[in-house]
Amino acid sequence: MFIYELTCVFSQESDSKKLVKKIEDWLKEIGAKIEKKEDWGKKELAYRIKKNSQGHYVFWQIKTEPSKVGGLFPKIKLESEIIRHLLVRTS
Fold first, then answer.
1. Which CATH superfamily is domain 2-89 in?
2. pLDDT for 12-59, tens place per residue?
3. How far is CA 12 from CA 18, 26, 36, 44, in A?
């Protein structure tokens, strides 16, 4: 198992609590264990993304198998209220 860091930026009009719950459900579906979660709140974006000047940032540190991470990307890409995401393997 490896440790990954997932950061998502939600649109300023979105219901972030609902989206956080949805992402955590997706992580449970792939068998990931959430080690840490941080809500960084709303921040001003450096440039507009999909007509948004602000975004709500949420960070997770998860532990899972590399083969299962691929199942997360299609779900994130289809969610229109997630304007940016970054998944990095740390170890």
1. Ribosomal protein S6/Translation elongation factor EF1B (3.30.70.60)
2. 989 989 999 999 999 999 999 999 999 999 999 999 999 999 999 999
3. 13, 22, 23, 10
Residue found by looking up tokens 């939600």 in the block: 10
The two tokens of residue 43 are 């921040």
Alpha-carbon span 86 to 9, nearest angstrom: 9
Q: What is the pLDDT of residue 91?
A: 84
Looking up tokens 């979660």 gives: 37
Contact call for residues 54 and 71 (beta carbons, < 8 A): no
- d(CA 66, CA 51) in angstroms, rounded, equals 34
Q: d(Cα 18, Cα 31) in Å, to the nearest integer? A: 20
